Amino acid sequence: MSSSLYVALRSGHEHTVTGLDDDTATSLRARIVAHLEARESHPTLDLGDGTTLRTDAVVMARVHDEGPRTGFVG
Q1: How far is CA 19 from the centre of its chain?
Q2: Which of 66, 60, 55 is nearest to 24 (CA)?
Q3: Considering its fold, how many domains does the chain have in total?
Q4: Residue 26: HSE in the Cβ half-sphere, 13 Å Cα cutoff
Q5: Spatial separation of the C-alpha atoms in residues 45 and 30, rounded to whole Å
Q6: Residues 6+ apart with CB under 8 A from 54
Q7: Is residue 74 part of a domain?
Q8: Is residue 32 domain-resident?
């Protein structure tokens, strides 16, 4: 099953990386949290889709399950 990583930045911008496997998405989120907890000066992280972000600018990071699309709306 694939997942996506949603990142909200302090600037108000948002970015979503889609098509990640569950472990990769969870690992990226954990690395963002670790950078924030370490309070590193200008830490950066490559999200694997050509996007590099400063983790000290991250306000929120969430992993979403991209489960099968059934077309059912209920």
Answers
A1: 12
A2: 66
A3: 1
A4: 6
A5: 11
A6: 42, 43, 44
A7: no
A8: yes
Nearest Cα neighbor of 64 from 9, 5, 16 is: 5
Domain-embedded: residue 71: no
Task: Give me the amino acid identity at 59.
Answer: V
pLDDT in tens, the chain (74 residues): 688 999 999 899 999 999 898 899 899 999 888 888 887 676 888 888 888 888 888 888 889 887 655 555 54
Please report the DSSP string for 6-70 in residue order: EEEETTS-EEEEEEEEHHHHHHHHHHHHHHHHHT-SS-EEE-SSS-EEEGGGEEEEEEEE-----
Domain membership of residue 73 (yes or no) is no
The structure's pTM equals 0.72
Q: Which domain holds residue 19?
A: 2-65
